[in-house]
Amino acid sequence: MEEIFISRPEIAIDDFMIVFLSGALTIVFAGAYVCIFALVKIKKLKNYFMPIAYLFWVLTVLCLYVLSDLIGNHPFTQKVLFMTMLAYLFFPHFIFFLMDKSHENHEH
């Protein structure tokens, strides 16, 4: 029987808690970014909360960077993660732009 080789990143035992927390905080901060962004755009929060949303995006990027550094991602994967985070910054803007345009078209 042939031996199956599975390549996976080795995580040092000392880094496990940091890897776990940075992964969890990536999800929490990303959700906070989108939540605050959406609430400001639908006028449930004042506009001065928008910098807080961008602060959560920066925290998401930092946590993802720590996570990718600790698990030893390949440089190509790090570039893909960077592009993904840039898309995550601009995608909500694009969605709300489309939403505004569709409301204008259907209301008038």
Structure report:
- There is one protein chain.
- The protein has one domain.
- The radius of gyration is 19 Å and the shape is elongated.
- It starts with 15 loop residues before the first helix and ends with a helix.
- The chain contains three helices and no strands.
- The mean pLDDT is 89.
- With 108 residues, the protein is mainly α.
Number of helices: 3
Strand/helix succession: HHH
Average per-residue pLDDT, rounded, comes to: 89
Distance between termini? Answer: 70 Å
Question: Briefly, what is this?
Answer:
This protein has 108 residues and is mostly helical. Helix content is 74%, strand content 0%. The protein has three helices and no strands.
List its traits.
single chain, 108 residues, mainly alpha, 3 helices
Which SSEs are present, and which pair or pack?
Blueprint: H1 16-41, H2 50-70, H3 75-107
Helix pairs in contact: 1-2, 2-3
